[in-house]
Amino acid sequence: MISAGFSSALCVRPVVSFSNTIREVHNHGRVTCLATSMSSASMTVAKDAEYELESRKYELLNIIQDTQRGLVTTADQRSTIEEAMVVVEGFDAGKEIDLSKLDGTWRLQYTSAPDVLILFESAARLPFFQVGQIFQKFECQNESRGGLVRNVIKWSVPRLLEENEGATLIVSARFSCVSARNIYLKFEEIGLQNINISDDLQAVIAPAILPRSFLSLQILQFIQTFKAQIPVTSPERQSVGGLYYLSYLDKNMLLGRAVGGGGVFIFTRAHALIC
């Protein structure tokens, strides 16, 4: 009986073991399939979210397209732009500033800041003044809590300087991160450089029908290489500063708000800028 029982045990146990193995393989397959399905679902959700974000960014840029960078807007347009900005900002809410993304040059597409709009208004009213592209150039690639920012304004005087690119005004500031989203700007210097005179003015200085004299060439070279820098700070007075809230940031769009009612800014990535 013992021998028979032992023999029966030998016959039964392998069957039970094999059955358990089949069950384990089956369950493992179900877990693997479930994990794969969850991974696929997560990828689908991520792609949907990315598509939704890009669509909202496109809508925002489309809304501001005919505003002349904020110069020509109605109250309804400004309200619509604000709503569209809030939607985009919601995708990036609560995240800390990534200085590696912020580093680089950004082109102004729209603003409601009075100190910038007055430049556009002046250019619209005055025939002898033009405002070209406006950039913000951040230098903070290897920094952890701040860096340097340059506000670059291209401007011109028709017939005297090249159109829209006649000269470059640069307002430099140091910035520091004071919270997850706020940076404090401390302005340091205002500079004027890259003066490109028009062909008409060159003809006055050195007429084409005459050989250019040493004096005329010196004058042309002086104008073209002229560079003036005026410090904003001095031992007698404190630097002008301001708080700036970066409400959205990714690899190709930057949204900002000047704290204290100073207006909003919409920038897109600029791939190259010489200044």
From TrEMBL:
One GO cellular-component annotation of the UniProt record comes to: plastid
Q: Which InterPro entries does this one have?
A: PAP (IPR039633), PAP/fibrillin_dom (IPR006843)
Keyword annotations of the record: Plastid, Transit peptide
Q: What is its main location?
A: plastid
Q: Where in the cell is it found?
A: Plastid
Q: Where is the signal peptide?
A: none
Per the database record, which ranges form the Plastid lipid-associated protein/fibrillin conserved domain? Answer: 57-267
Its name, as the record gives it, is: Plastid lipid-associated protein/fibrillin conserved domain-containing protein
**Protein's organism:** Solanum commersonii (Commerson's wild potato)
